[in-house]
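Onboarding guide, step 5: your first structure request.
Type a short instruction followed by the sequence, for example:

Predict the 3D structure of this protein.
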Amino acid sequence: MGHKFAEIAFTPSVQGMQERMGSRAGYARLERGPVVGSELGPDEAAFVAARDSFCIATVSETGWPYVQHRGGPPGFVQVLDPKTLAFPDFRGNRQYVSVGNVTRDDRVSLLFMDYPNRARLKVLGRASLIGPEQREILERLELPGYRARIERGFLVRVEAFD
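The system replies with structure tokens like these:
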């Protein structure tokens, strides 16, 4: 399959719905094309660096999805390399739903939006937590002059994007 995002997201039931709704042929051509959407390039890195927020979806151990908004100054999410994103996790309402979910199921979906320009970046990945013992990585995520306290970090291994 060519498009990595389609490989993950276009399950048999999704493909069946695309067939019924008339869009399957176009997506099938995309899937047969060259492999794309598995490594972030300069355009995606610049898009992420310009964002001051995104939404993260995690999966609970009972199978329920959970979506949470995350925000900070532009650039608080960093592209460490073409397959890795990292961001600080600031102290918030202390529910720890996303954090808890990631400890049981590392699959995440991130949605970065640029509303004025009607653009978006969807990322599917596998997340791990960066704890206080990983001081070197956490220091890379610090934001000089930003008041929010970092409790931990998230490291996301990119599986696919669209």
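Each response can be followed by summary notes, for example: DSSP finds six helices and seven strands in the chain.
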